[in-house]
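Reviewers of the previous submission asked for a worked example of the structure-prediction workflow described in the proposal, so we include one complete record here. The input consisted solely of the amino acid sequence. No template or homolog information was supplied to the procedure at any stage.
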Amino acid sequence: MKKILILSSSPRKGGNSDTLCDEFLQGALASGNEVEKIFLRDKIIHPCQGCSVCSQYHKPCPQKDDAAEIIQKMLAADVIVMATPVYFYAMSGQMKIMIDRCCGLYTEMKDKDFYFIATAAEDDPKIMDRIVANFQGFLDCLENPTIKGTIFCGGVWHVGEIKGKEAMKEAYNMGAQV
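From that input alone, the workflow returned the following structure tokens.
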């Protein structure tokens, strides 16, 4: 059994990338894993202020928001799933802000398995290469991360357009195989 943390950065509950998170979650639960999904939109996460309190002085971030709790859950997880809708060929701002807030404790994120999920209005599979490259900048700073899988579904913009797409089965099956 693995401890899985899903970070959904969709600004819409039930949005396309969020729906893929739910499918991944159902597959992972069916395989007996412990799974938690965090919907970043429901959290208060301020941008990093670059004050260096966390990295230089090894003290907790002085900002009083939900980022510290989420980072602790990332540290405790065996598997981290990061899901984003595509905005201007990159990850959502919500996801980028969350990643930036990891700067104080990223050196403690060791030996994690990662899965990346992305959806986009444009139906070009090369978009996922750009998204993975965005995430790779974060992983390059971690010790021994492994990308275990990626799911991309293009051609979906409006809520619900993901229904019936092959990516739904892919997400469930990927979650079941963790």
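The chain has a mean pLDDT of 95. We consider this example representative of the routine output the project will generate in years two and three.
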